[in-house]
Write a structure and sequence with these properties.
Shape: flat
Number of helices: 11
Strand content: 15-25%
Structural class: alpha+beta
Number of domains: 2
Distance between the termini: 33 Å
Low-confidence stretches: 93-98, 296-301
Helix content: 40-55%
């Protein structure tokens, strides 16, 4: 799994993402983002300082990707490849959304640009398209998914709507419909999308830590960061390869010990940061064979909690084809700082499930 991540869906780091950025900087080696050529950043001084090392906030130009991504997006829409209500766009009825957003023209090829400008309220001005928020938002997320895939980057966001769309795009039409969280699979399924949560990973006082201290930590504690990253990687890879319930249970037992040990060392390595309390979690999205899951092994909350390591495994939805890819199981979601319990994991897991359900059917 890549130790380098792509931030999306916006160009600049937003205020609600500052906490996310500080946490991401403590763990991942490089943080990329999509920035059109010639775009001038307007970010506060502490963000500029954090990005000054050259490893955080690295710009990727969309120019080399927009033609292929636009063609693929438009073709899949026109041919009905994606069976999802959120991807059914009606230009004649766009007023009901009453929402338009600004999209840089370099992110969109001419053919798709013309489609976006079909409704009467859309227009182009000074290199920006002012178009339907619904279509432009989905396209920008699809573009990020394509860029990440082509460069072996892990997609990452704290925006649950963006996470939902990118999860759908990554698995295309393979995500199963009519799956009810907590029950047996309604249709035959070979695998399930499974969020794996890791809790109490970051300092609870994260926003009080100066950017200079974050940069010092990144330089001096590379080994501890790598050890924790590798422990998570090994855990999710082994989960995705299991096909027998007994083997899966054994993997969970063995690997959680390694993850807990690595997490303990990772926390100790933050002595430089004067940590007061721990909080926050990360989630990795992995596909696991349904034969190995054995539906009844999960309780009514569809979450399996794993001892003191603060690890939770949930069910999201089924996959109708065998699409287990242990090497490309991206970290996908990083949530805000707060104390987490198994009940909290269950609530968040259900919220993510509802996001996917609404994206496909509502």
């Amino acid at each position: 799994m890549s130790k380098e991540i792509l931030y999306y869906p916006t160009i600049e780091f937003q205020k609600y993402d500052y906490e996310w950025l500080w946490m991401a900087s403590l763990l991942w080696d490089k943080v990329y983002r999509i920035v059109p050529d010639g775009y001038e950043m307007h970010e506060p001084r502490n963000i500029q300082e954090l990005c000054s090392s050259g490893d955080i906030g690295i710009s990727l130009s969309p120019n080399r990707y927009s033609k292929i991504a636009s063609d693929k997006f438009l073709r899949n829409i026109e041919q009905g490849v994606w069976q999802a209500a959120a991807l059914e766009f009606d230009h004649e009825d766009v007023d009901k959304y009453n929402a338009y957003c600004r999209l840089h023209k370099d992110k969109v090829d001419v053919a798709l640009r013309n489609i976006m400008l079909l409704d009467q309220k859309s227009f182009e001005e000074n290199n920006w398209l002012y178009v339907s928020k619904e279509m432009s938002s989905q396209y920008m997320i699809f573009l990020a998914t394509e860029i990440a895939e082509q460069n072996n980057l892990s997609l990452f966001t704290s925006n649950s709507d963006a996470w939902t769309a990118s999860t759908f795009f990554m698995h295309s039409s393979n995500i199963q419909e009519n799956f009810f969280n907590g029950d047996s699979f309604i249709e035959e399924s070979t695998a399930a999308l499974t969020p794996v949560f890791f809790n109490d990973v970051f300092p609870a006082n994260i926003l009080s830590i100066p950017a200079s201290d974050i940069l010092e930590y990144r330089e001096k504690r590379k080994d501890e960061r790598a050890e924790f990253q590798n422990a998570i990687d090994d855990f999710v890879k082994r989960l995705s390869r299991a096909t027998d319930p007994k083997i899966l249970d054994q993997i969970i037992h063995d690997e959680q010990i390694k993850v807990e040990y690595a997490l303990t060392n990772y926390r100790k390595s933050m002595d430089l940061l004067k940590v007061v309390k721990w909080g926050g979690y990360i989630a990795s999205l992995v596909s696991i064979a349904t034969d190995a899951l054995g539906y009844t092994s999960f309780d009514s909350n569809v979450i399996k909690g794993l001892n003191t390591a603060g690890i939770g495994i949930g069910l999201l939805t089924g996959l109708v084809q065998n699409n287990i890819q242990p090497v490309h199981t991206p970290y996908s979601y990083l949530c805000n700082i707060k104390d987490m319990s198994i009940d909290s994991f269950s609530t968040i897991n259900y919220q993510l499930y509802r996001k996917v359900e609404e994206f496909i059917n509502d």
